[in-house]
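Thread title: Can someone regenerate the structure for this chain?

I was given the following input by a collaborator and told the matching structure tokens would be attached. They weren't. Posting the sequence so someone can regenerate them.
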Amino acid sequence: MKADASGVYPMLVPFYTADDRVDHALWRPQVDAAVRHGCHGIGVMGLGTEVNKLSSAERREVVRSVAEALGGRLPLSVTVGENTVRGQIEFARFAVEHGAAWLILQPPSVSDLPEIELLRFFGAVADAVPVPIAVQNAAIYLGIQLTAAGLVSLHRQHPNISLLKTEDPPDVTARLIEETGGVLRVFVGRGGLDMIDELRAGAVGIIPGVETIDRTARIFDAFRDGREVEAEAAYGEILPTLVYVERSINHFVTASREILARRLGVAPVRHRLGKDLGDFGREMVARCSRSLGPLAAGDAAGVSS
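Best answer:
Regenerated them for you:
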């Protein structure tokens, strides 16, 4: 099975209520903004969705709520992070039943596994869920990374594994695509940092945060259509924000949520085990949100510094 997924798939970020529950009402403003600003799909349940801070029941409810808010307007990509083959199969099937067009499989959070065991793990899930699948190859965040040879072997034995999600800088992306012979369509996260060079390196898609989606979708389209000067100019508008937020996953989610809330006019913002940004960090959040502006005309009400 060949996946033709490409483009900008922002990874949605959760908001929380005063009693520390996921605020499902705030998926729709994010989804609506993504549709309004020309994103090519939606991502959910990755590290940017704080999947590591959600219970199993919350994960399913998030997928259900996001799919309902999306209503089939864009393709939906769902990340699967359960630690057993059976758990991944069950969650993957649930996601597909709720409209997921393709899946991203994270490796189990077990260190020092031989690569052959990881290949068997991913292969068993892929065989049981016949939809396009990406493997998340992100040692920087997950501590586990498959070799190029392992990835090629995985694709040959399980053809629906036809995508790859990485967190690598552009030069590493280019080398990986060369070493795998281009058999996998590569999406890169990193919040959108270096996204133009990632596309030059051969990536077909970017999975940024939601806080910059009005620019990231425009950058992708401009680059794809050969308007590189326009793409570079739009990228320059978001670069200070990307540099600030892209430090660690917890810092990214905390700062991204704060900036997004200001751009959407959402208050107050509550975090679950969030990073303490400090007074100066909060000033940086305010500067970033002011420089980016509201996400659409009419969204300015409620945006504060």
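The two ends are 48 Å apart (CA to CA).
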